Amino acid sequence: MDYAGSEPGVAGLHVPPLAVPNQRRSDGTPPITSTKIVVSGGFGVGKTTLVASVSEIEPLTTESVMTVMSESTDRLDGLPDKTTTTVAMDFGRVTLESDLVLYLFGTPGQGRFQFMWDDLVRGAVGAIVMVDTRRVEECFPAIDYFERSGLPFVVAINMFDGSPMYEESDLRDALSLRPETPLIECDARNRRSSAEALAQVVVHALRMVGAR
Amino acid sequence: MVADDGGRGSASRSARVRPYALTQGRTAPGHILFVETLVTTLDCEQGEESALDAGRRDMPEVRAIIVLCRGVRSVAEVSALLNLPLGVVRVLISDLAAQGRISVYQTAGDTGRPDRALLERLLGGLRRL
Ligand SMILES: Nc1nc2c(ncn2[C@@H]2O[C@H](COP(=O)(O)OP(=O)(O)OP(=O)(O)O)[C@@H](O)[C@H]2O)c(=O)[nH]1
Ligand SMILES: [Mg+2]
């Protein structure tokens, strides 16, 4: 498959590299550790907004080429069709200590992007699943996936104007959440609120480390 | 790595490239390269002369990675900033690492999930934002 790439080296060199500590490791490079949290949920639920609220750089977009099996009604043999598409994922970065940097990856919440999640969840601290109460069912694939993979995740209700208000217990029922899965509220446009949602992912991950 | 003369000077290279043509068909990198894995160019090419020599044998994409990673960058940043698919970036960086030209950092999750000490630092950092 082709991709319409622009010339390497011309795009985005203005995005500054990481600020690094003065110490050096044995190969002359500075010590620094990176980690990541995944942000998922349905279309337009506020993933990019949350990433941008916390990130120290404008969110960037990276592409993966994926092979998808699509249920085909055309094929007489009933086998799924194989097609390739390019999936975009956006991400941001926040340096929390001089030698500790957190990456935030926003990824679409549709079930057919699972191949991308397999790659993303490896080594991740955990995930946020964002929910718009006007369209709760859009987050089901992400919740199913993170439950199965054992990745610590929290569900964050993103309040939009005109979103109906529900009791927490009704929401938990509507989402069939396990009792241990945290359900929080978050305004993705607000840096504090977004950082606190991420902090809740870490708190939950700590709980799960304790339970291991 | 095989010399690429098709596009000496990146300006002559076609804007449409099959991604796996850049990696000679290989798709699996030899190092753990998560999207958040940090990499940085190693100062191994002494003097302008040898740096240029090495540069001449490299594909433009590889040269671009070497230049971009003079600072510390994640695999995802390399992909986004150079407009190359993640899979391609992984293979090219893996080759550069095998040649000792790029240093690949360990991430907090290389051995599974980040450990308690790291999670606590992370929590402190997020709460200070
Ligand atoms: N009221 C309200 N609006 C929000 C909130 N978060 C995001 N929005 C708005 O919702 C719209 C969609 O937000 P995005 O961040 O682009 O959503 P997304 O999940 O990245 O969307 P896709 O990547 O297209 O699936 C934007 O106009 C935001 O300004 C929120 O917490 N409250
Ligand atoms: Mg988005």
User: Which stretches of chain A of 5+ consecutive residues score pLDDT under 50?
Assistant: 1-11
The overall pLDDT average of chain B reads 78
Spatial shape of chain B: elongated
Q: What is the fold named in CATH at topology level of chain B?
A: Arc Repressor Mutant, subunit A
Mean pLDDT of chain A: 87
Query: How large a portion of the residues of chain B is in β-strands, by DSSP E?
Result: 5-15%
- Second CATH tier, the architecture of chain B: Orthogonal Bundle
Number of β-strand runs of chain B: 4
CATH homologous superfamily grouping of chain A:
P-loop containing nucleotide triphosphate hydrolases
For the largest beta sheet of chain B, what order do the strands appear in spatially? Answer: 3-2-4
What is the N-to-C order of secondary-structure elements of chain B (H for helix, E for strand)?
EEHHEHHEH
CATH topology of chain A: Rossmann fold
Topology overview:
The complex is a heterodimer of chains A (212) and B (129).
Chain A: E1 3-4, E2 33-41, H1 47-54, E3 60-70, E4 81-97, E5 100-108, H2 114-121, E6 126-131, H3 140-149, E7 153-158, H4 168-175, E8 183-186, H5 191-211
Parallel strand pairs in A: 2-5, 2-6, 6-7, 7-8
Antiparallel strand pairs in A: 3-4, 4-5
Helix pairs in contact in A: 1-5
Chain B: E1 16-17, E2 38-41, H1 47-57, H2 60-68, E3 73-74, H3 75-82, H4 86-98, E4 102-104, H5 116-128
Antiparallel strand pairs in B: 2-3, 2-4
Helix pairs in contact in B: 3-4
The structure holds guanosine-5'-triphosphate and magnesium ion.
In short:
With 212 residues, chain A is of the alpha/beta class. Chain A is 26% helix and 30% strand.
